[in-house]
Design a protein that fits this description.
The complex is a heterodimer of chains A (260) and B (250).
Chain A lengths: L6 E11 L8 E11 L4 E5 L6 H9 L6 E7 L8 E4 L11 H7 L7 H10 L15 H14 L4 E5 L7 H17 L3 E5 L3 H7 L2 E5 L6 E6 L10 H17 L14
Parallel strand pairs in A: 3-7, 3-8, 5-6, 6-7
Antiparallel strand pairs in A: 1-2, 1-4, 8-9
Helix pairs in contact in A: 2-4, 4-5
Chain B lengths: L3 H26 L7 H14 L1 H33 L1 H16 L2 H12 L3 H25 L3 H9 L3 H40 L4 H11 L2 H30 L5
Helix pairs in contact in B: 2-10, 3-4, 3-6, 3-8, 3-9, 4-6, 5-6, 5-8, 6-8, 7-8, 8-9, 8-10, 9-10
The chains are: A alpha/beta (260), B mainly alpha (250).
C-alpha cells in the first residue's frame, strides 16, 4: 500500500517540565499553533532550548503530558505511521544494521523489500556490521533506513545531520530529498542551520526562545537548484530576522502554504 | 580461539606445579592427616567408580541448580520492580539489606527449625542467601537503562516483548552475568554448610562424615571433585557466555 501522507494541526497551549531533583520547573512551549499540510516538507528552526525536540516528542506520542491538542488528517485512518530520526542515531549497539532496520517491522519484514531499502540508502555493504563499526555518516544512514522502513506517513527528524562533516551532510540531504520524492511522506525537520533549512524546506517555521511558539513562517517557493546561492541566503536570513521581530501570532487558516 | 592450546598448556603447567608441591609437602610431613596428591587422586577415581561420589555430587548439583534458578528469577523480578517503582524500593529496601547481611548459617538454622530437616528448607536457605545480591545487582542495572533507546522502541511501537528482548535484556545481560557469577560463588560456599547441617546426602554431608572419621584422604578427594565441577562451569559455561554476549563490542 502506498503511504497516504498526513497533515497535522498542532495546538499546544502549554508544555511544562516539573522541576525534578532540584531543577526549577520550566515552560518549554506555550501557545504553539501550526498546521502542516500533507506531503509538506516543513522545517522548524529556532534558538537552542526553545523546545523543538519537545515538540517532536509530543507529535511522536512519546510525551503526552501537555495541555492542548494534536490532530492528524485524514482523521479516519487511525494513528499515522511515524518514522522518527533522532539527533543521535539511537541504533541498538548489539544488533547489526540489518537487524536494527528489520526490528521496526516485526514479523511483517519482507526480506526483498528490506534489501532494496538498504541498498537505496547505501547501507547494503554494512548491513552485517554492528553500529560501533560504522562511521557517523553510515550510522545516520542506518537510522534513516530504519525510519523509512515502516513506510511512514510522517517523518520526524531532529537535527539528523548534526556533527557530520559538510560533504557527508550534503550527500545525506540529497539522499533525503530523493527518498521523499520516491516515498512520499510529510516531513517535520528540525535544524539550526538556515542553509540546510532553505535547501530542504517547502516552508520554514521559526520558534521563539523558550517558551517556544511560532513567531514566523516563510514559504520557500524556489526551485531546489536556486537554493544554494549565498546572496539569496543572506537575504532570507535578514527576512527571517525581520519576521521574528514582528512576532505576530500565527494561525492555520490565515497562512496558506505556498508551493513553487 | 587460536590461542586456546597455548592457554591450555599454561593452565596444565600451573596445575602440575601445584600437584608437585603438594606431593613434596605430603612426603615431608609424612602424616596420615596430610595425604599426597597421588593418594588423593587414586581415592577420587576409586570413589567415582563405586558411585558414592557421583551420588553425593549429583545431590549437591541438583540443589545448586534449583536454588540458582529460583534466586535468579525471583531476584531479577524484585530488582526490576525496585528500580521501576519508588514505592516498591522503599518497601523492600530494608528487607533486602537485612537479608544481604544476615549470615547464611542463621538463615539455614532458622529454616531447618521452621520447616524441619527437609529439602525445601535446604534449597530455600540457599536461595534466600543469594536472592538479595541478585536483586541489588539487577536494580542497579535497571537504573542504568538507556532512556533514549526506550523512547526509540516506543516511537517505533516495539511492544512489550520486542522491547524486552531486543532493547532491555541486552542492556541487562552484563548485570545478569555479574549476578550469576557472584551468586554462583556464594552458592557453592553456602550449599555445603546447609547440607552439613541437615541433609543425609550431598558433598557437604559427606565431608562432615569424613571429618568425624578423620578420613582426610576422602575428604580432600570429595572437595576436589566439587572444585572440578565449579571450574568446569566457569570455563565451560560462564566464560563462553560472556564472550558471546560481548560479540557486538568493538
Amino acid at each position: 500500500m502506498a503511504p497516504v501522507t498526513v497533515g497535522i494541526t498542532i495546538d499546544i497551549r502549554e508544555k511544562r517540565y516539573a522541576g525534578q531533583s532540584g531543577a526549577r520547573p520550566r515552560t518549554a512551549l506555550r501557545d504553539l499553533r501550526a498546521c502542516v499540510a500533507p506531503s509538506e516538507f516543513c522545517v522548524i528552526t529556532g534558538p537552542s532550548g526553545c523546545g523543538k525536540t519537545t515538540l517532536l516528542n509530543i507529535i511522536a506520542g512519546l510525551d503526552r503530558n501537555f495541555a492542548g491538542a494534536l490532530s492528524f488528517e485524514p482523521s479516519d485512518r487511525g494513528a499515522p505511521r511515524i518514522g522518527y530520526v533522532f539527533q543521535s542515531p539511537r541504533l541498538l549497539p548489539w544488533r547489526t544494521v540489518r537487524e536494527n532496520v528489520a526490528l521496526v517491522l516485526g514479523r511483517n519484514a519482507d526480506p526483498v523489500e528490506l534489501e532494496g531499502l538498504l541498498s537505496d540508502i547505501g547501507v547494503a555493504d554494512v548491513a552485517d556490521a554492528y553500529p560501533a563499526q560504522l562511521s557517523g555518516g553510515m550510522a545516520r544512514r542506518a537510522a534513516l533506513a530504519r525510519a523509512f522502513a515502516i513506510a511512514p506517513d510522517l517523518l520526524l527528524m531532529d537535527e539528523p545531520f548534526l556533527s557530520l562533516d559538510a560533504a557527508a551532510a550534503d550527500r545525506l540531504r540529497s539522499l533525503l530529498l530523493h527518498l521523499v520524492s520516491t516515498r512520499p511522506a510529510t516531513v517535520l525537520f528540525v535544524t539550526h542551520d538556515l542553509a540546510e533549512a532553505v535547501e530542504l524546506a517547502d516552508r520554514i517555521l521559526v520558534l521563539s526562545p523558550a517558551p517556544g511558539r511560532v513567531v514566523a513562517e516563510m514559504p520557500i517557493a524556489l526551485a531546489r537548484t536556486e537554493r544554494r546561492d549565498p546572496d539569496m541566503l543572506t537575504m532570507l536570513r535578514a527576512k527571517l530576522a525581520r519576521l521574528g521581530d514582528h512576532a505576530r501570532p500565527l494561525g492555520c487558516s490565515t497562512d496558506p502554504v505556498a508551493f513553487p | 580461539m587460536a590461542r586456546f592450546p597455548a592457554a591450555f598448556a599454561e593452565r596444565a603447567a600451573s596445575l602440575l606445579v601445584i600437584l608437585t608441591a603438594w606431593e613434596v609437602a605430603a612426603w615431608l610431613a609424612h602424616s596420615r592427616l596430610f595425604p599426597g596428591a597421588g593418594a588423593v587422586l587414586a581415592t577420587l577415581v576409586d570413589e567415582a567408580a563405586r558411585g558414592d561420589l557421583l551420588h553425593h555430587l549429583g545431590a549437591t548439583l541438583v540443589r545448586v541448580a534449583i536454588a540458582f534458578a529460583l534466586a535468579m528469577a525471583l531476584g531479577t523480578a524484585i530488582g526490576l520492580a525496585m528500580a521501576r517503582s519508588r514505592a516498591v524500593d522503599t518497601l523492600l529496601d530494608s528487607g533486602v539489606v537485612l537479608l544481604l547481611n544476615l549470615p547464611a548459617l542463621v538463615i539455614a538454622v532458622l529454616l531447618y527449625v521452621w520447616l524441619g530437616l527437609t529439602e525445601a528448607a535446604a534449597i530455600g536457605a540457599v536461595t534466600l542467601s543469594k536472592l538479595p545480591t541478585v536483586a541489588v545487582t539487577l536494580r542497579e542495572g535497571t537504573r542504568t537503562l538507556d532512556r533514549d533507546l526506550a523512547d526509540m522502541a516506543r516511537s517505533f511501537h516495539f511492544g512489550v516483548w520486542r522491547t524486552w528482548r531486543h532493547v532491555t535484556l541486552p542492556q541487562l545481560s552484563p548485570f545478569f552475568l555479574v549476578a550469576s557469577r557472584t551468586g554462583l560463588a556464594l552458592i557453592w560456599k553456602i550449599v555445603l554448610v546447609v547440607e552439613l547441617l541437615g541433609r543425609p546426602d550431598g558433598i557437604g554431608y559427606a565431608i562432615q562424615v569424613f571429618f568425624q572419621l578423620f578420613d582426610i584422604r576422602r575428604l580432600i578427594a570429595y572437595a576436589l571433585a566439587f572444585v572440578a565441577v565449579v571450574l568446569a562451569v566457569e570455563w565451560g559455561v560462564l566464560q563462553p557466555l560472556e564472550r558471546r554476549l560481548a560479540r557486538w563490542r568493538r
